[in-house]
Structures
1.
Amino acid sequence: MTVEQIIAYLVPVIMWALIVSITIRQFLKKQSSSTMLSWLMVIYLVPVVGILAYLIFGEINLGKRRANAFKALTAEYMQWFDKISQCREIISRHPSPLSEPLFDLTQKRLGIPCVEGNELHILDNPQTIMQSIIADIDAAKHSVNMIFYIWFDGGMVEDVMKALIRAVRRGVKVRLLLDSVGSRAFFKGKNYPYMQQQGIDIAEALHVNLFRVFLRRIDLRQHRKIIVIDNRIAYTGSMNMVDPKFFKQDRHVGEWIDIMVRINGPVSAVLNGLQALDWEMETGQKSTLELPRRPILEIENHNAHAVQILATGPGFPDDLMEQSLATAIFSARKSISITSPYFVPSHNIAEALRIAALRGVEVSLIVPAKNDSLMVHWASRTFFEDLLAAGVKIYHFEQGLLHTKSILIDNRLVLVGTVNMDMRSFLLNFEVTMLVEDISFASEISLLHENYMNSSSRLTYGSWSTRPLYYRIIEKLFFLFSPLL
């Protein structure tokens, strides 16, 4: 038998064995039925492409070295978070019936305590955000620690860079962790080596190595946005380190609309611990961590200014983000208002929103009219008809790409951070969300959402249900592949 004949026999056998193995894995794996069916469809319709795609993207695999390191480090950092739990003067003890189920779920599954006495403010203008960050960096005395998915040079970002250099020259320790893919342009640019030469420590998170493509999933992303200054002042939210006037202008969707939350208070130490964990994962370098200081705001009976940090991603408790969203939605009694740039949730979350509307909760969803992702633009529409029929109010924001990720429950409980309403954020990205019960902060979010609605057009069930048939077909086709992201 010739070599060609052997290959001709072996290739179909190997293909068959791989298809059978992947099929069995799909039935045994804990995942949604839509994800399972999507993978099976791809594998059986285009076997070669499907098998290769599954071997690269099918499993959430951190890689052996990273997984072992993450397991060891999380155990160590959980002990530090437990020490925060002993700081009785700042630990939440009497959450309201609205927030208690969500806070309890997060604390029990994650081990991070809820911290009271924080002063929080929404910043929703790029210039105001950058000026505030620069002013706090210029006031820094000891440390500036950052994580960003995207750092994109140009405009006001240059001013932030100069502020960091000034801080280093004053003796402040500056650490900057950036995602390998999101900040690819920065790592190839001139400011990367220049900032290193000036004394800024910069690390690349989740470096993409094509030679290790079958050993670790290459599309895991560090999607958090965190700044912590002197363990006291912190920022988190949806905005990357970009100037919207310079960023993705070729996408023709308008400027990106974002928010950042400025935090003054003891929960900043929790964010600092999370940044330290991510930093040590990438560099092996330990950070000096300090326990949080006293409350900044007085803790009142009905307004404790409480913040629960929710960290999610590969290696963190499975399905915690989706469980938290479902818990928040089911806790609502009066209203739910959501902003999300990428709305392709699981069926469970979409159904929870539909049920909320059917039981009389006023549910509002604000999404961008134009999206930089063609798949999201079409796939998100799959849910609209059922949601509109149930009474959900859907708004198309028309003044740019609305990138803010926020949820307001009963005008009291807020979820704000980096998580999109899609399976990538639920399963693949390292994300951070603030769960906040604070009356004044909720009022700021409420006003923000109202302003977004005033810059939007509202969809109606009548007009949406009569859209062309080919629209529906395109929506279904794109949605079919959305779980594979």
Note: The chain has a mean pLDDT of 89.
2.
Amino acid sequence: MKDETTGQEDAVQDAEACAEALESLDRISLDDVAFDDSSVDVQDEPEIEAQPDDQDTGDVEPAEDEADHEDTESEADDQPGSDTSEETILLDNLPAEDSLTRELPGLGSAPAVDETIAMGDIPLPSVPSAREAEVRHRKMSPKRRNLMVAGVVAVALVAGGAGYAAWNGYRQEQAAVVAANAHTMMSVQIGVHAAGLDCSTGSKIPVQVSGQDSDGSSVSETLYVDEHGRGIKLLPGDYTFSIAASPIAADGTIYTVPTTKAQVTVKNDGQDLRAQATFKLKVPSADTVTDDQIDAAAKYAEEGGASSAAAAKVLQQAATARRDAAVNAVSAQKAQASRDADARHKATDLYQLDIPVEWYGKVATWQNGNTLCIYLDGDTNTPLVTLVAVRDGETFTPDDGDTVLGTVSLGNGYTVYASGPVYPYVIPQTVNGHTQNPVSTYPMDTAIELVELTTGNRYTYSQIKNDLVGKDGKADAATKLETDYLAQILLPSIKAQD
């Protein structure tokens, strides 16, 4: 029963000591905890050794132990200096200038107090032997021992707490950096190709952005980029980019909006996304641009693509004017083409045809019944081809010097014969003087033009003269060249009259 009571008392003392150490941790200095070597009485060693090993130290009354400890401390105070004083160096043996003196701080004008410390009065500390340390441990009161243990534990806890606090602070700092980046707008660049676009004078390209940022918030907004793809700022996250509408160039150009979309992930500032998101805006024919396209482009220009609403209005007017001018030009071209077609269209009682576009403006025609002659404009004596309708079964003989260049059956009982000079052969022969009875003589410019008209300018005059005709005067190659060309551009247009 006594052992149990003593154990409980020790536990209570341990708890009190820990609490006292923890509460006074900020107030305790090293000077408050002193270890007195003189508290160990060597004469008591036999008595300690004489105690049986199995004796419970709790049987010794704490009061007696403390009293014994106090008597020992009193005796130690009355004892003379240690025998080891021979090894002690007294500072009073040193020269006067080597004495340790200090002036008490804060005395102002008070006389300086010389506090010379005679180190000879204080023995130098010595390292206790293992036996002495064991004796000290056994003679120390439980309360004091527990206080020391609690102090050591408290210091360890403080040191460990400081390390944990530093690590925790670092983690919090890193988390703060990550959190700050997650809430920082990041600039990114995409790829855009729009020929002739200068956003400093025209409007910027509206980019539709949708997705989710790092906070988990949904994003759906329109941002604007210049011709280099710069201008987008977003929080980190996953997004889809697409072109919302056409920009408007300074000259009013409207672009075809691509339908492609790009999936991107924004991670850091200055990120280059051109490899994942590049859009090509093509320039369509201005006459095909619609009012809806112009209105959509103007809307986005006013909302952020242009410097102001007034600037957006000017760009809209430029786009409309450009489109209208193109439409008018196309209309004029169509009207002229219609007039030209009427002018190129020729008809007789039995057949009709269209003068080849390549010949239009360079030739003229005369007509006599079902005979139609196409000749060099301004020279009726220089026919290119003469068309004659002959009843099926009848014989056709071309004029002197002409060759049959092709035939077309009308399907109504008549056949149209196309005949004329083989100019790729006649011209070189005439110029070189090889023809005995030339149709006529031709100036060089006329000769070249005739060759071009009858061959489609597929060969130069020199090639025809030197290669196709040849030096033997045969006209086979030249004739084939002309007949093949007429079969392509003229004969297919010959139809029976309705």
Note: The longest strand covers residues 205-213.
